[in-house]
Write a structure and sequence with these properties.
single chain, 205 residues, mainly beta, Lipocalin
């Protein structure tokens, strides 16, 4: 019986190590970090692989225009992304709300699922966009080169291996026979950081 318990403990420990290696780290609860990340949404508080940067989402002071987005209510405030230099204990606004309401690929109202690149130079994130799909965006950590990458959701950034630095995105696509639609499907696809499709990653249905 004792041997069985020891084996189970070892298996659980191994699983925890593997999971931790595949998941980006949450920042430690240092008192100064807690102060700098005050009002952050804890579900969107992430630390860079090198521990130098902490990115988080918080509510902005900008009200979403009433005719701007299909799921917003009158008086709703948009979210924004902030970044903290954990070495110098300085924070700054990284991505402000974007109300380009006629272009769902550039509107930024509810950034979430923040993910750092392995080289710590880029932050990826998701936003709500089309009715059937979200949008994936990226920005350099200095706030420059904010760009739309591709449509989709369930973003993951590959942190090691031959595809290190590439991204995995779940996309809603349609089957056609000629011009006739035959239904839709949701599969995971592997993309380059610029949004170029590499290959199918995983079939979901």
């Amino acid at each position: 019986m004792q041997k069985i318990v020891i084996i189970l403990v070892l298996l659980c420990t191994t699983h925890a190590i593997v999971y931790a290696q595949d998941t980006q780290r949450k920042p430690e609860k240092d008192a100064r970090i807690l102060q700098l990340t005050k009002d952050a949404k804890l579900t969107d508080l992430i630390e860079s692989p090198d521990g130098k940067w902490i990115a988080f989402v918080k509510k902005s002071h900008s009200t979403i225009p009433s005719n701007c987005f299909y799921f917003s209510k009158k008086g709703d405030q948009a979210d924004e992304i902030w970044i903290v230099n954990a070495k110098e204990m300085i924070k700054k606004l990284l991505v402000a709300p974007h109300f380009s309401c006629k272009d769902m690929s550039t509107v930024i109202i509810d950034p979430h699922n923040l993910q750092f690149s392995p080289d710590n130079k880029t932050l990826y994130f998701e936003t709500s966009a089309w009715v059937t799909s979200g949008a994936i965006h990226a920005v350099d950590i200095d706030g420059s080169h904010l760009r739309f990458v591709t449509d989709g959701s369930e973003l993951r950034v590959v942190q090691s291996g031959s595809y290190k630095g590439d991204i995995i995105v779940n996309q809603h696509r349609y089957r056609f026979k000629g011009d006739t639609p035959l239904g839709s499907y949701n599969w995971d696809w592997l993309f380059t950081p610029t949004g170029k499709q590499i290959k199918l990653y995983k079939k979901m249905d």
